[in-house]
Specification:
By secondary structure, the protein is mainly alpha-helical. The protein is 62% helix and 2% strand. The chain has a two-stranded antiparallel ribbon.
Length: 173
């Protein structure tokens, strides 16, 4: 009875030790590099218009179609940052809804492209940093596998490091 009790105790001890050895660290949370509102404002290119809204109104009043006005805006590479109240007031002045919609969509697309470029730039820098760290780690591993590598006093076998001998292997002297 006493023998089986001690065997059980030994078995439970080994089982708990084995389970403790299988425990692992929880994964590190993903760190997101956030863009502050100030950085976002600096990233988004300001709206630039070489073709003014008054000129767009004049084109509309001349009877030009939406496609012709949009093509003129594209060729001038103009962007307009309009608030909803600005959109209403310019519509009342004579700019059609299709042209105003294009202006809003073009501005939103330019903002999205600027943000995507910044995200891609940061991701590329992160990937390059990870690759550099991996290269450094691999080089450190390769250096330590070199048979002539000496890591300093007491490194694997005494104060003088590895010592080769004529027998074809390694021996510590």
């Amino acid at each position: 009875m006493r023998y089986s009790h001690s065997l059980r105790l030994i078995f439970i001890t080994f089982l708990l030790t084995g389970l403790a050895g299988c425990a692992s660290q929880p994964p590190q949370p993903l760190q997101i590099d956030r863009i502050s509102p100030e950085q976002l404002a600096a990233l988004v290119p300001p709206a630039q218009s070489t073709l003014t809204l008054e000129q767009v109104v004049a084109l509309s009043k001349q009877g030009k179609s939406d496609a012709e006005i949009i093509e003129a805006i594209k060729q001038s590479q103009s962007r307009y940052s309009l608030t909803p109240s600005d959109v209403l007031s310019w519509h009342e002045k004579g700019i059609s809804k299709g042209v105003l919609d294009y202006m809003q969509q073009a501005n939103a697309l330019a903002e999205q492209n600027a943000i995507a470029d910044e995200i891609n730039k940061r991701e590329k820098a992160r990937v390059e940093s990870d690759a550099r760290l991996k290269r450094e780690r691999d080089m450190a591993r390769l250096r330590s596998m070199d048979p002539w590598f000496y890591g300093g006093p007491g490194f694997y076998g005494g104060p003088w490091g590895y010592r080769p001998y004529w027998g074809g292997g390694w021996r510590y002297w």
